[in-house]
Design a protein that fits this description.
The protein is 0% helix and 48% strand. It is mainly beta and 87 residues long. It has one domain (16-85): Immunoglobulin-like (Sandwich).
Length: 87
């Protein structure tokens, strides 16, 4: 006879790909789960760092228009990408 496992005991799979989209002064991160998002200037200075936990986006309204590097990592994946905040 198979053992019945409560739903809360089933481990959740974390996808191995992250997707980042900038739209309407927000940086949306898809498939991140609980992840840390850090935005760096091109000179390497960290301008913003937030933990996404139950949230789908990071507010970019206090970041000036320009080109930045965004780093996103969670327990499975770490990724970085260049983003452009529209002029």
């Amino acid at each position: 006879m198979e053992e019945i496992v409560p739903a809360t005991a089933v481990p959740q799979q974390v996808p191995d790909e992250l997707y980042v989209t900038v739209m309407n002064e927000k940086l949306y991160v898809t498939n991140a789960g609980e992840a840390v998002v850090t935005i760096f200037s091109l000179s390497g200075k960290a301008l913003l760092s937030e933990t996404l936990s139950g949230k789908l986006y990071v507010d970019l309204s206090n970041i000036p228009d320009g080109v930045y590097i965004v780093s996103v990592y969670n327990s499975v994946v770490q990724d970085a990408a260049k983003i452009i905040i529209p002029y």
